[in-house]
Amino acid sequence: MTTPDPAKPRETPLRGVHDRLGASMTEFAGWLMPLRYRSETAEHRAVRTAAGLFDLSHMGEISVRGPGAAAALDYALVGHLSAVPPGRARYTMICAADGGILDDLIVYRLADEEFLVVANAANTGVVLAALTERAAAHDAQVTDETARYALIAIQGPAAAGILGPLASVPLDGVRYYASQPATVAGRGILLARTGYTGEDGFELFTAPQDAEHIWSALTAAGTEAGLVPAGLAARDTLRLEAGMPLYGNELGPAVTPFDAGLGRVVKLDKPGDFVGRDALAAAAQAAPRRVLVGLLGGTRRVPRHGYPVLWDGQPRGEVTSGAPSPTLGVPIALAYLEPAAASAAETADSGLAVDVRGRAEPARLTPLPFYHRTSSRT
Amino acid sequence: MSIPENLMYTAEHEWVALEGTTASVGITDFAQQALGDVVYVSVPAAGSEVTAGEPCGEVESTKSVSDIYAPVDGEVIESNPEIDDDPGLVNTDPYGAGWLLKIRLADDAEPAGLLTAEEYTALTKEAE
Description:
The complex is a heterodimer of chains A (378) and B (128). With 378 residues, chain A is α+β, with helices and mostly antiparallel strands.
């Protein structure tokens, strides 16, 4: 057996599909992923108006099973996972003892004693190690099941209409942030109504050997409705428009959930201790040390990660993510600002700017999210 | 990958069309594919002096920004008036409607250091 070359990125089960579609591939978190197929702007627009099909097989899937699984997750994560009914999911975080964020997660409760933790590709190893350590005192088994799954997402207003005829369950019965086993195109999957685009959509956890079949079936079913394959570039501009944070940009070990405006994920009133409780309880009480804000760029030059945000000419913050917004037609950005500067900017007509490679470009605050889908969620 | 025979090229992925003392300049098909959807182009105003090998503008796409390097010494005489309203021309027609600027050469000698289509093709193959 040849030992795998650690320098080579991992391929997903859909690698052949991407090649046949002529995708521009990129290396991301140790995986070879489709960045775009043709135009990332066209792919973004398709998700907003019809639907996009994504290969997300790089994401980490970690199972936590056993009589003590719920208690283990209550201890390991900031959320109250034991309160989640089977068939439901939660957006949550795993923090260090000092309250810094190790990863943001979606946790699906599959059964009383079975949870599926979905981690960012770049953090799967860290999350696996932390969960294993934190579950040690509980009757629970933590297993990396990333290689057992491919993950296909179909996102957009047409997603339900395209997927419905291929699914063994009525999609009206699958609520937002719910999941259930189902069959799609004749193959067994875990079907979830979750996503990272701000549109209605579904994530299909499939066996690796079924991924191509399901991708092809969805493609055939969706072409008439305007379904297109969509890559990581579109994924990033979609989540940014939806005001969703990205680990490595808005979230990181130096940031608490409260800094990111996501204190709601920290369930301080859950019983029992959890990793980071003391630090997070203190952070909940303390005055904010920074504020995550949305910015609209005043010119076409795009505020990007790391660019200083100026208030009255002085650097008072930093951009965490920025891109041209296909939906809004102007550059949008997320940035951390000193609270005093954020307050001052709220009540002023001008004064806020971003230093874009040496030139100050005017910007203004805008409430998040930048984009709201109009139809109501089921 | 389109690399027209009748143009000259730079290692920074610009193309140059020489007509007498005027050089028309844009970015290549290779460059526009690498950049993705172009959202904004900034080039120097007419009358600006440019120096061969020095940055003289920017091409901004969804995910990144690239400098445009002047391929020759000279003075900018014109920039593409369509580019501001339709930066996507750089993607759809990089050698035609997506041209970026025209430079009057500083002297009559043939500019040095430009690559032939064959040389540029070899360079792009190495980059892949």
